[in-house]
Fold this protein.
Amino acid sequence: MRTIAVVLFSFFLPLSPRIATYITAIWFVLWIISGQPIKHIRQLRKKSIWPVLGLFLLYLVGLSWSAYPETGLRELETKLSLLVFPLLFFLSPVQHEPVIPSIRVSFILGLCGAMLISYVAAASNYLETGLNTFSYKELGAPLRFHPTYFALYLNFGIILAVDAILKKKDNRFLYRIFVGNAVLFIFLLAARMQLILLLVVGLIWFLWWGYQKGKLLGGIARAFVALLLLSAIAWSIPTTRNRINRAITEWRAPQVDAGNIRLELWAAAQTAWAESPIWGTGTGGGMPALERKYRQIDCAECLDGPLNAHNQYLQTAVELGLIGLLFWILSLLFPFIIRNGRKQQLLVFFLILFALSTLTESMLATQRGAMFFGFFYAFFLWNETQFQLIGEKSKVD
């Protein structure tokens, strides 16, 4: 049951969060009926999931001091993935068969489907209206896929594919085709932080490969060639080139009139956090607090939506204060602490990718972000503990 559920979920996650939610709900109901939560309750002793469960419980308790409990309940619903997936994975029987290959294939196929739908919709729109929608927000619009989240998913898909290529798995040629298409699609999406992360992750991969093979200079040379190639691609796409130029302008002149609205969002979030630094506003009180600050600084663009803090660390701090911020940071760092010397490259790259992505987006405030993090975070931690549980079971047997 679990293998079928995770394969279906990872396939539909890029295509339709709603269908992915239905799959999770069915999985959860069958899991409850099977009695697995009671049979495997002792597995909650595994410390690896304590920080993320603690974060969700803090959001739950945060309703008690929130002035906006109804808003808080809706927000808590968005963050259910932080509770549900750790329980579904950890309170289940030990699985001896590897699941990563199945998830890798299904998630990448889902991404291929999402890219194909986006391309077809953009081509159809161009033929009907003459408008070019092959870039930025318009490209993922048919799936209601924000470019940053779309690019995040693709970056992680690239990590999964490159891992298979380096480990000489089957279908390496197809994985290479996917990587090439995914890289091009990320440049079309023109999400600046994800473009940076594509370069960072690529650099780390090449250096890691060179170090493991004893060919560090070769890894550096490959990274340099890849950098030149990616720079050429970026410069050849007008939307991407313009957004990169805009980012450079913002960096040189960090004012709102240069278009850097995020500085205003972050400044407002910091002042909102300062009003209740330890416990925050409570769950659901974050956005009202930010809106008040936006009005005080007369930021009409910030109120258009209105916009959240566009930084998960600040967003968490505003709602749950320093305590919540520490739980969030611990959730990201704790897996590194408990690795027990095992080589968990995918877990490491996943955490680096998501931790850096949340510097410019409040990803746990959206369904696509929370489900992506909750599922893969719980899965990789569970996959790590399987080695220990199999060892313990063999001793008992």
Notes: Confidence is low (pLDDT under 50) at residues 389-397. Residues 100-129 form the longest helix (30 residues).
